[in-house]
């Protein structure tokens, strides 16, 4: 299979040079509130005079990305999805192919070996992968939206030259923020860093770390000065194999079982001063910005999951499953459920793509990302649960993928900010708007 990145890259260059016609218009009449994000505001494109386009409008590059990733997922991932779930392990061939197809370096500039595409292209890839296997999707999501973005934005030129080519071609990255007492309250982390003559020493532990088993590259958040509380948090790069770095436990989970989730310990882990990411005491800013963007990726994972669950069930009830002498899909009561589910899926997708476009335009997207993640996780849980019922016994057994979609959906309401955290974020933004 030809590399997706190599196939699409020429179209990406053309799209960049003619991007004016692809940009939706945003009002400039109201004051713009700058959000805390890893994305710079757009200065090269004036979007104020561009006629509005549908949120779901895709450029030629983005349409090619959707079609190519869909084909790749059907041909390479789908035949392995059930076995990977049962074994609770990511197939090395899938990982190899993700790199070969350029899906692990979507936003990494071409000069560093990446695909050099836009954020929405990454969101499209994440959604298309999740239609087949959310476990593969989240591996790609965390690697692209959290790890790669952090290095592109805050890495020194030395770090970019050393690690971006690896992250684009053969090295999986992991994002180490959560701890046993520091989940939703991310800034309560207890992992500590101290300065040494040659760099830094890290002690502590992390929990719920995605990609940990497969990764060789870790972005680790530790407090360099606890007296500053959360403002002492600093980000570092740690490579697997560094003395004192250990993976002590791989979690057994309800869903996304092929995606590794591990406990990591740091026992006097010494790293060189060059492995400082960005500046000391600014890690909390990086974490906020990255998680705000990462929530759009998780939302895309959930809309992709909902689409996959719906399509899997619809194909069965409209073609195979019969009751009382007719296809189940022909009963009006069932058709109304299908219609309602489809409306909710498309509404969730509109939130996801709107948040992605606003991020690319440099607009304040924080509330949009929270709304997208909240609602898409709700829709994914609801639709995947209904899909099991629509398929009857075939939805309940582990022969097909229906019950897997249902189990996989639950994590959407938990990681990268629980649903309650998203509601709190939305409410705080609304309070700012309506407080006199």
TrEMBL record:
Gene Ontology MF annotations: flavin adenine dinucleotide binding; short-chain 2-methyl fatty acyl-CoA dehydrogenase activity
Residues annotated as domain Acyl-CoA oxidase/dehydrogenase middle: 174-269
Pathway assigned in UniProt: Lipid metabolism; mitochondrial fatty acid beta-oxidation; Amino-acid degradation; L-isoleucine degradation
SUPFAM superfamilies, sorted: Acyl-CoA dehydrogenase C-terminal domain-like, Acyl-CoA dehydrogenase NM domain-like
UniProt keyword annotations, A-Z: Acetylation, FAD, Fatty acid metabolism, Flavoprotein, Lipid metabolism, Mitochondrion, Oxidoreductase, Phosphoprotein, Transit peptide
EC number, UniProt record: 1.3.8.5
Acyl-CoA dehydrogenase/oxidase C-terminal domain sequence ranges: 282-430
Superkingdom of origin: Eukaryota
Any one GO CC term of the record: mitochondrial matrix
Locations listed in the record: Mitochondrion matrix
Annotated InterPro entries: Acyl-CoA_DH_CS, Acyl-CoA_Oxase/DH_mid-dom, Acyl-CoA_Oxase/DH_mid-dom_sf, AcylCo_DH-like_C, AcylCo_DH/oxidase_C, AcylCoA_DH/ox_N, AcylCoA_DH/ox_N_sf, AcylCoA_DH/oxidase_NM_dom_sf
Residues annotated as domain Acyl-CoA dehydrogenase/oxidase N-terminal: 59-169
Alphabetical list of PROSITE patterns matching this protein: ACYL_COA_DH_1, ACYL_COA_DH_2
Cofactors (names): FAD
Reaction it catalyzes: 2-methylpropanoyl-CoA + oxidized [electron-transfer flavoprotein] + H(+) = 2-methylpropenoyl-CoA + reduced [electron-transfer flavoprotein]; butanoyl-CoA + oxidized [electron-transfer flavoprotein] + H(+) = (2E)-butenoyl-CoA + reduced [electron-transfer flavoprotein]; valproyl-CoA + oxidized [electron-transfer flavoprotein] + H(+) = (2E)-2-propylpent-2-enoyl-CoA + reduced [electron-transfer flavoprotein]; (2S)-2-methylbutanoyl-CoA + oxidized [electron-transfer flavoprotein] + H(+) = (2E)-2-methylbut-2-enoyl-CoA + reduced [electron-transfer flavoprotein]
Biological processes annotated in GO: carboxylic acid catabolic process; fatty acid metabolic process
Top-tier EC class: oxidoreductase
Family classification: Belongs to the acyl-CoA dehydrogenase family.
Assembly, per entry: Homotetramer.
Protein name, entry field: Short/branched chain specific acyl-CoA dehydrogenase, mitochondrial
Taxonomic lineage of the native organism: Eukaryota, Fungi, Dikarya, Ascomycota, Pezizomycotina
């Amino acid at each position: 299979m030809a590399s997706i990145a190599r196939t699409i890259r020429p179209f990406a260059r053309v799209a960049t040079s003619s991007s004016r016609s692809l940009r939706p218009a945003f009002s400039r009449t109201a004051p713009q509130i700058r959000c805390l994000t890893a994305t710079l505001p757009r200065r090269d494109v004036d979007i104020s005079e561009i006629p509005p386009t549908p949120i779901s409008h895709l450029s030629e590059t983005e349409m090619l990305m959707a079609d190519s990733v869909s084909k790749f997922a059907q041909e390479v991932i789908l035949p392995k999805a059930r076995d990977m779930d049962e074994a609770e392990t990511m197939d090395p061939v899938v990982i190899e192919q993700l790199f070969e197809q350029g899906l692990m370096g979507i936003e990494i500039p071409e000069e560093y070996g990446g695909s050099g595409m836009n954020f929405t292209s990454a969101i499209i890839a994440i959604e298309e992968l999740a239609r087949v296997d959310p476990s593969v999707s989240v591996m790609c999501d965390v690697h692209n939206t959290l790890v790669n973005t952090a290095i592109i934005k805050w890495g020194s030129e030395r770090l970019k030259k050393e690690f971006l080519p690896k992250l684009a071609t053969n090295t999986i990255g992991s994002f180490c923020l959560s701890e046993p007492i520091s989940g939703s309250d991310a800034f309560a982390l207890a992992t500590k860093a101290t300065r040494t003559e040659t760099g830094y020493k890290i002690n502590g532990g992390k929990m719920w770390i995605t990609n940990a088993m497969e990764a060789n590259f870790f972005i680790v958040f530790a407090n360099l000065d606890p007296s500053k509380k959360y403002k002492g948090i600093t980000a570092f790069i740690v490579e697997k194999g560094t003395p004192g770095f250990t993976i002590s436990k791989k979690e057994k989970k309800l869903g996304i079982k092929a995606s590794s989730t591990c406990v990591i310990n740091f026992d006097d882990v010494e790293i060189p001063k060059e492995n400082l990411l960005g500046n000391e005491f600014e890690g909390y800013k990086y974490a906020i910005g990255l998680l705000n963007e990462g929530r759009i990726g998780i939302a895309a994972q959930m809309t992709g999951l909902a689409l996959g669950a719906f399509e899997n069930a619809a194909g069965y009830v409209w073609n195979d499953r019969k009751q009382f002498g007719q296809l189940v899909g022909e009963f009006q009561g069932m058709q109304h459920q299908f219609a309602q589910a489809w409306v909710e899926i498309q509404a969730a997708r509109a939130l996801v793509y709107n948040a992605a476009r606003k991020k690319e335009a440099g607009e304040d997207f924080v509330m949009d990302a929270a709304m997208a993640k909240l609602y898409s996780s709700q829709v994914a849980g609801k639709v995947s649960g209904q899909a099991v019922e629509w398929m009857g016994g075939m939805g309940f057994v582990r022969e097909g993928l229906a019950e897997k979609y249902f189990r996989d959906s639950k994590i959407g309401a938990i990681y990268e900010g629980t649903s309650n955290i998203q509601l709190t974020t939305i409410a705080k933004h609304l309070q700012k708007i309506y407080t006199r």
